Amino acid sequence: MSDLLTIAGRSFRSRLMVGTGKFSSSSAMVAALEASGAEIVTVALRRVDLHNPQDDMLAHIDRQKYLLLPNTSGARDAEEAVRLARLARAAGCEPWVKLEVTPDPYYLLPDPVETLKAAEILVREGFTVLPYINADPVLAKHLQEAGTATVMPLGAPIGTNRGVRTRDQLAIIIEQAIVPVVVDAGLGAPSHAAEAMELGADAVLVNTALAVARDPGAMGAAFRKAVEAGREGYLAGLGEERSQAEASSPLTGFLRNED
Ligand SMILES: CC(=O)[C@@H](O)[C@H](O)COP(=O)(O)O
């Protein structure tokens, strides 16, 4: 039986989304995308010319194969984010947007107030909104009530490769979610992606780990397997953590009885 990820009524086999920044070459990016099995690929609106099909990056992304998810990376407030999303739609992109509002260039942490404000506007305008947020369960609820198609809480700040540092808050978001939860940012190793999936995330988004790998294609394949393994582990039902040891084999009834 297939285990599909469904976002806003659209289904995907892959639970790994991939970002397109920081790759050393277009061929490295294509190798990573293909090996990852991703079906959703995010592109920073500030880095591409959507009106130009020959744009170096866009020309390398097969839009029959991948859903192009424009992101508002670089937007510092709601107004800038909304403007970027509208530009993407005007240029012929599907009305899906990865909403990112990051006023602070040092930590790139998302602004919760401006993100919610932008999400409310974009949902009203008919966009399918996938907001990047800190791992804040209260904000995640507000965004879902506003009509976002997912929530995308961070594992760690963008580009840090530090893994699932927000585990406890992610668990609450996942427990309460009524839309898919996509753990986005900071996942620097395949094991990080597996951990997020084992926790019950519906999908993950990865960019830096693939882009900076010595072999981005091989890393794409490794993340693909990790996401699948994490998902399978989650569905199989993981055992609960315990503080006290519990023997896996009987501890009585042998050796001493033979005296
Ligand atoms: C590409 C994208 O949409 C970002 O949110 C982010 O870049 C992903 O995080 P990492 O680069 O840390 O994987």
Automatic annotation (TrEMBL):
GO terms for molecular function: thiazole synthase activity. One of its GO terms (cellular component) is cytoplasm. It is an enzyme of class 2 (transferase). It catalyses: [ThiS sulfur-carrier protein]-C-terminal-Gly-aminoethanethioate + 2-iminoacetate + 1-deoxy-D-xylulose 5-phosphate = [ThiS sulfur-carrier protein]-C-terminal Gly-Gly + 2-[(2R,5Z)-2-carboxy-4-methylthiazol-5(2H)-ylidene]ethyl phosphate + 2 H2O + H(+). It is found in: Cytoplasm. Residues 6-250 form the Thiazole synthase ThiG domain. Pathway: Cofactor biosynthesis; thiamine diphosphate biosynthesis. Keywords: Cytoplasm, Schiff base, Thiamine biosynthesis, Transferase. InterPro entries: Aldolase_TIM (IPR013785), Thiazole_synthase_ThiG (IPR033983), ThiG (IPR008867). Its EC number is 2.8.1.10. The active site is at K98 (schiff-base intermediate with dxp). One of its GO terms (biological process) is thiamine diphosphate biosynthetic process. Residues 240-259 are annotated as: Disordered. 1-deoxy-D-xylulose 5-phosphate binds at G159, A185, G186, N207, T208. The keyword Transferase applies. Catalyzes the rearrangement of 1-deoxy-D-xylulose 5-phosphate (DXP) to produce the thiazole phosphate moiety of thiamine. Sulfur is provided by the thiocarboxylate moiety of the carrier protein ThiS. In vitro, sulfur can be provided by H(2)S. Belongs to the ThiG family. Homotetramer. Forms heterodimers with either ThiH or ThiS. This is Thiazole synthase.
